[in-house]
Amino acid sequence: MRIIRNYIYCNYDEYCIMKKTKLGEFEELVLLTVAALQEEAYGVEIKRELEKRLKEKLSVGSIQSALKRMEEKGFLTSEFGEATQKRGGKRKRIYTATPYAHRVLAEMKEIRAQLWNSIPKLAHELKTI
Amino acid sequence: MNDIKPPKWPLNMLRFFVKEKYLEEIEGDMEEVFRENLEEFSPGKARRMYAWEMLRLLRPVLIKNFEVIENLNHSAMFRNYFKVSLRGLMKNPMNSFINVFGLAAAIGICVFAYAFARWTYSTDQFHQHRNSVFLVTFSADRDGAAQQYGQTPRPLGEMLRNDFTNIEKVCRVEDRSVIIKYDDKVFHERVRYTDPEFLEMFTFPLKWGTPTSLEDVNSIILSENMSVKYFGDENPLGKNILVKFDQNNSKAFKITGVAQEFPKARTIQFDFLINFENLRTSEPGYDFHDWDKFVNATLVQLKDPSDISALEKGMDKYRKLQNQAVHEDWAISSFAFEPLATLHKRSEYIRDDISRSSADNYSSIVYLTFVGGFLLVLACFNYINIAIVSAAKRLKEIGVRKSIGATRKVVIVQFLSENMVITSFALIMGVLLAMTIFIPGFERLFNFNMDFRLNHPSLWVYLTAILVFTSIASGMYPSVYISKFQVVGILKGSVKFGKKNPLTKIFLGFQLVLACVFIITAVMFTQNSIYMLNRSWGYDPEEILYTPVADQAAYEQLHAAMAQIPDVLSVSGSQDHVGKNHGTTVLHFPNREYEVEHFSVDANYFNTMGLELKTGRIFEDHEGSDQRAVVVNELLVENMGWQNPLGQQFRIDSVEYEVVGVLKDFHSYSFFTPLKPTIFTVSAKEDFRFLSMRVRNGSENEMFKTLQAKWSELFPEVPFEGGHQEDVWGFYYEEIKIHGLVWRIFALIAITVAGLGLYGLITLNVAGRAKEFSIRKVLGAGLRNIAANITNQYAVLLAIALILGAPAGHLLSKVIIETAYTYHMSIDFTAATTAVVILTLVLITTASTQVIKVFNASPAEGLKTE
Question: What's the confidence (pLDDT) of residue B494?
Fold first, then answer.
C-alpha cells in the first residue's frame, strides 16, 4: 500500500510558519481516522480502524507517537474519557481534530484533487506529441 | 481469562521511560491490546507481543527527557569545556605536568601489568586440542603426603591405546641428551623420542615438511631455532644429520620437517623430534614392557573430554599391575589426568613433568596489579588535591557560569569532562610510556617477548575501564565539592577554600601513607635482593670447575691430564654433582619411609667442593672403603629428630647403611628452591659422570681454558660441556639483580609521584597565601617564621602519615617477602627508616624551594596580586 507523498503544501506560507506544522503521510491518515471516529477516537480504536482499512498491523507506539506529535503541532486536542474493565481500570483519552486540522486536511484534499485533474491532460498532451 | 496478566518487566520499563502524563492512557491502551490478543493467540504469544509492543513504544516523543541525554546533545558546550581545559592545562604547565605525568606513569604500569597478565593467561592456549589432550600422571605417598608425578610407567601408553575406545590418540615422550653433528657443527642437544601423534595432539605447525613424516623411523623434525642454528636461513629438508646417542651408537637421520617459530607463551616445546621406535636401536636395553621403568610423559587425546572421569575410574587395574611390578617404595596410589589447557598452572605441583611451571608468572601478576593499582590511587589523590586547591583560582569562572544559568549538575559535568580530557592525555602518554619504556625494558631485562599489540579488543576495554575509573575516581569529589558553592558567595569573594578543607588534608595524609607503604616495600625488596646476592651457598663455588664426562675411561684420561697441573689443588669424580644432577632415594626406617636427594661421590668430593663437615667424618679414600656409609646434611638430621645422628641406620633397597658424618646445609640449587634432606654415598668408579676440581684462587679462568684445551685434545668429537661452579645456577644472579632493579624503579616512580603531589600542593598553597606572606614580611617576619608557617601543617600531616604508614608498610612487605622467597633476609626496620627519611627529605626539599621563593619575592608584588 503506497500513499502519495505531499511535499507541496509547504509552499503555502501559513503552513510554513513553523517547521513543525508539517503533516506527515502517516499522521495525515491518523488525523483522518480521528476525524472519522468522532467521540470513539481513542488510541486502540484508531489503531483498529486503521489496521482494518490499511490491511496491515500497526504498533501502539506508532499510533501514540503520531497522536502526540500532532497534539503538539495543534492538529489535535484530547481529554480523558471513561475507564473500562478491559483497560485494567485505566481511562481512555479521546482525541478530537481541531478546526485548524480540518482546514489543513481540506486544503490537502484540494491540492490532491487539482493534481489528479491535471494527470489526464498531461497524458493526453504527451500522446499528441 | 482475567487471571492472565501481562508480563511485569515491560510495564516497569514503560513506567520508567515514558512521560508521566501519557502513562495512564498508554498503559490502558496496552492492556486493551493485550486482552484482544489473548482472544486470538496463546497467552505466551500474547505476552511476547506485549513485550515487543512495549519496546516499540520507546520513541523520542513519548519518553521522558533525561537530563544527561539532553546534556550530551550540547556539543557546543562540550567544545567549550574542552577549550577551557586545554587553556587550563597551558596556564599551569607545572600542575598539568604533575597531574598528567603522575597519572601517565601509573597508567603505564597498569598497561604493562595488563600486557603481562594477557601474556601469562595465553600460555599454551594456542594448542587447538588443549581441552581434549591430557597428561597422564600418578600420585604416590611420600612420607605421609601425596605427591603427583608427571612420568608414567612405560607400557601404560600402549595399553591405554588398546583398552579404551574413547581415547583417540596416545603419544609417549622420552627426552635424551645426544650429540648432533652436521658438517663441522657439533653440539650437545636434547632429542625427544615421540609417537607421530605428537604433532597432531600439540599444535606446532611446520614451516617446511609434513608432520606425518615422523612415522618413518629415519626422519627427524627440527624446531625453527635448531634449523637456524645448523643451517641458517636455508631450507634443510632432505639433508642428513648425524645423531650420536652414545659413544659407540649413532645414526643418520633425514630432515623431513622444520617447525614454525613457537608462540612466545609456551611451556612445552622441542628441539628435535624422532620416532619413539628409535629407542629400540639407540638403547638396546630399553624394555617397552617394563612396569618398573618410566617414560618421561604419556599424553592422551579423547574424542570427548567429558569422558575423562570415566577414564580415571578405569585406571585402577593399571595401578594394580604397576604395584605388582615395582618395588614397594614406589607403590602408587592413583592415576590422574591433567588437561593441557591448565597444565602450566598445575605444573608447579607435579614432579618431573614435561611442562614448565608458570606459577611465578601468576604471582607476578598479583604484584604488578598491586603496584599498578597503588600508583593509580596515588596519582588520583594527587589529582584530587591539586584540583581542589587550584579551583580557588577558578572560582570566578564557576561563579560566572552559575549566574549565567549553569546548574550544579552542569558544573559537575564540566569538571568531570575536563578531567576526562586530562585523563585521556595521561592515558595516551601512559600507553606510550608502556610501549616505549616499560614493556621493552622488562622484555630486555628478562629476555622474553610478551607479544604486546594494540589491536587486542580486550586491551581497549581495559583502557576504557581505566579511563572511566580514573576520571570518575579523581574527578568526582573535586567537582561535587567545587560546584556546591553559592554564586553570591563566590562573586562577593567571601568563599575561601582549599586551605581550610579538612578533606584535602585527609587526602594528602592518605597519599603520604600510601607512598610510605610503597617505598618500604620497594626498599625491602631491594635489600632482599642484595642479601640474596651475598647469601652463602654453604660451600665456596668460586674456585671450582666441573665437567660432565662420558664414562670411567674418559674420567681417568681427563683426571690424569689435569691432576699434574700445579694450579689444580684437588680433583674428584662423582656420579652426581651439586647444582647439576642428583638422584632420588627412599630411606627405610623400621617405622617410616623417607625420600631424600642422593649424591654418589668419591671420597675427595667434599674437600674439592668445600662442603663443610659438622660432626663425624667424611669417606675414607681407599679401594672398597665405606660401601655402607652415608654422609647426611643437617636438615635430614633435624627432620628425623636425631639427637645423636652418628651411627643411625636405615635401609636403601635392601642394603643397610649407617650415618658416619653430618655436613652443614648447602644449597644445591638456587635460593628459590627449598633445601632438601640429602645423603651422600660412595660411588663406584665405573659410575663416574662428573669431574670436579678445585683450583688455586685467581687461576680459575686460566684453568678453565686449560680444561677446555685438554678436553678437545682428548675428545675432539665431543663438545665440551663443563663450566664454573658459580654458573650452575644459570641466570639466577642476573635474575636477582633484575628483581632489585625492578623494585628500585617502582620505588623511584612512587617517590616521584608522591613528591610531585606534595610539590604541587605546597606551591598552590603558597601561591594562594601570597598576600598573607607579604603582610607578614612587611611586619618583619624572618626566614624562620615564614618557613615555619609554610611547613608546619605539612609537617604535622607527614608525622601522622608516617606513624600510620611505617608500621603498615613494614608488616605488609614482611608478609609479601615471606611468601615470595623461600629464603630471605631477616627483616629489620631499615626499610621503614629509609622511607621515613626519604619522605621527610622530599617534604623539606619541596617546602624549602617555596620558602626561598617567598623569601626572595618583593612584598609589594605580593600585595598587588588578586
Answer: 62
Q: Please indicate whether, in this complex, the C-beta atoms of B31 and A64 are within 8 angstroms of each other.
A: no
CATH of the domain at A117: 1.10.10.10
Evaluate whether residue A3 is within a structural domain.
no
The residues in A 88-127 lying below 8 A from B, measured between CB atoms, are 88, 90-93
- DSSP SS3 for B362: helix
| β-pair partners for B148 | B139, B350
Question: Of B26, B31, B36, which has the smallest distance from its Cβ to A64's Cβ?
Answer: B26
Q: What angle do CA B525, B530, B532 make, to 5 degrees?
A: 90
Instruction: Looking at the structure, tell me whether residues B96 and B40 fall in a common domain.
Output: no
Task: Report the pLDDT value the prediction gives residue B206, as an integer from 0 to 100.
Answer: 92
pLDDT of residue A12: 40
Total tally of structural domains belonging to chain B = 5
* Number of CB atoms found within 10 A of residue B706's CB: 18
Predicted confidence at residue A6, as pLDDT, reads: 38
Question: Per the CB < 8 Å rule, is B27 touching A88?
Answer: yes
What Cα–Cα distance (Å) separates residue B288 from each residue in B191, B269, B293, B537?
18, 24, 9, 41
B3 in a domain, yes or no? no
* Chain B CB within 8 Å of residue A24 CB: no
Domain that residue B483 falls in = 71-123+358-495
> How many structural domains comprise chain A?
1
Q: Rounded to whole angstroms, how far apart are CA atoms B740 and B532? A: 10
Same domain, B695 and B631: yes
B350 membership: H or E segment, kind and range: strand B350-351
Confidence (pLDDT) at A123: 57
Residue B143, amino acid: D
- Judgement on whether residues B711 and B653 belong to the same structural domain of the protein: yes
Please check whether residue A76 lies inside any domain of the structure. Answer: yes
The SS3 assignment for A67 reads: helix
The CA distances from residue B426 to B390, B423, B431, in Å, are 19, 5, 8
As averages over each run of 10 residues, the pLDDT of chain B (866 residues) reads 73 81 86 87 87 83 63 66 78 76 86 87 88 90 80 89 89 91 86 93 91 92 92 91 88 93 86 92 87 89 88 86 77 88 84 77 81 84 76 76 82 83 88 88 77 82 89 83 76 60 76 84 83 81 87 88 87 89 85 86 88 86 80 89 88 87 86 85 88 88 88 85 81 75 79 77 77 85 83 86 90 84 80 86 86 83 72
Residues B608, B747 within the same domain = no
DSSP-assigned states of every residue in B120-178: HHTTTTT-TTTTTEEEEEEEEEETTEEEEES-EETTHHHHHHHH-TTEEEEEEEEEEEE
Provide the 3-class DSSP secondary structure of residue B659. Answer: strand
Instruction: Tell me which residue of B170, B132, B193, B134 sits closest to B335, measured CA to CA.
Output: B134
The Cα B543–Cα B557 span in angstroms is 22
Indicate whether A118 belongs to any domain: yes
Is B8 an 8 Å CB contact of chain A?
no
Task: Dig out the grid coordinates for B778 from the structure.
Answer: 612587611
Locate all alpha helices (DSSP H) within B391-456, ordered by sequence.
Answer: 395-404, 408-433, 439-446
